[in-house]
Design a protein that fits this description.
The protein is an all-alpha fold. It is built from 2 helices and no strands. The two termini are 15 Å apart.
């Protein structure tokens, strides 16, 4: 479980770093990148939740 949380921490840090330092000048493309990145984050959260539930079932 610990590697999953470390990866999630890096994803969150990447999201924050992108929004603070590497944001695109075009608002539409920046919004698109933010939506895709947030979708990846939520997908990874659901993967972690599925893994925890599967471990609890055993």
């Amino acid at each position: 479980m610990k590697p999953h949380l470390i990866i999630f921490g890096f994803l969150i840090a990447g999201f924050i770093a992108y929004n603070l330092f590497f944001a695109l000048p075009d608002d539409r493309m920046n919004t698109l990148v933010n939506i895709v990145y947030a979708s990846v984050l939520f997908g990874y959260i659901s993967f972690i939740a599925f893994t925890v539930l599967r471990k609890l079932k055993k």
